[in-house]
Amino acid sequence: AAEEARRKAAEEEARRKAAAEEEARSKAEAAEREKAVWERLRSNQMVTNDETSSTANGSEAGQAEIAPDGQIVPVPGADSDPNKAFLAQSEASSTGIAKARIFRRTDALIPEGTVIRGYLETAINTDLPVAVRAVVREDVFSLDGRRVLIPKGSRLTGEYRSGLARGQKRVFIVWNRVIRSDGISVDIKSPGADALGRGGMAGRVDTHWLERYGNAIMLSVVGGVSEYLSSLADSGQGAQQRQVTTIDPVTGETTTVTYGGNGSQRDARSIAFDKSSTALQQLAQEAFRDTQNIAPTVYVDQGTSVVVLVRRDLDFSDLYADPVQQELARLRAGGRPKQAIDPTPLFSTPKDHYYPGYGNPVK
After folding, report:
1. Which pTM does this prediction carry?
2. CATH match of 106-207+296-315 with 3.40.190.10
3. Phi/psi of residue 274, each to 5°?
4. Domain boundaries of the chain, sorted by first residue
5. pLDDT tens digits, residue range 85-106?
6. Of 110, 288, 307, 339, which has the fewest CB atoms closer than 10 Å, so is most exposed?
């Protein structure tokens, strides 16, 4: 019996060493691939598009340089479509061969693409950038469903982008960390989304319409009134003088009153209206120029549901013991093997007479 135990221990030690060597070899190969990708990105290569350009001179479509940081920089005269540049960058960064690897600790792994749901603790106003906080509302389990790695009640911290462009109605949020109540934290660096997985969060949008156009509209109206009064003054310059004679029935005295014909007063009035109208139009243009670039503001209330799409694999293996090793140690200590969980449901649905026993309780 002792010899058998030593033999099994030696076999287990050999398997463990082989697994460790395989994992080290996989990590080394991944590091080499990543190094090669970054060397290609930092090289002075050119990304070309063979499609013909739609410009009038019929020149070939755009070329782009890859900057040292891996970003696509269009050369002068090239096609600067951001969608094509993003596609070229994605193709340049994925030229290596993808090799499958094994997650040996699926009990302590949250894979990329996992959804974390929560709700906002702080309201959002996109006028100024500031940190934002949320609370996880649902437990997040490991890949194999063995344990809860991010319990509900954990805190999410992140930041959002301010200075939105005109027409933009969603807030882009990046969630940086998850902090559990037991003091464990993990960096996630993942974007926020809505309930359907669309990027950003929707909220109430204030386009600042009154601030952008109110002053210009008011000054334009005042300028229009000045133009109207100026036109009235101009139309009255050619009017003839009119005399009205009245006779006092008691004394017989005759009084003559002259109306119109005061050209100098009408000229001064017309010049004043023209000057004021021109000045008001200039003020309206300056007011519109100063306020036309006011960015919209998006308001998101407290308690709004948030969704985090995890963009990286989260490894908690340093915090939890390997259940396989724990079970092995228990067996070595003389424990009995645990009964495997039967995945068959207690009752099958529905009962079928053509298959005996189908639909009966499983013993």
Report:
1. 0.53
2. no
3. -65, -45
4. 2-92, 106-207+296-315, 209-291
5. 665 666 565 556 778 888 889 9
6. 339
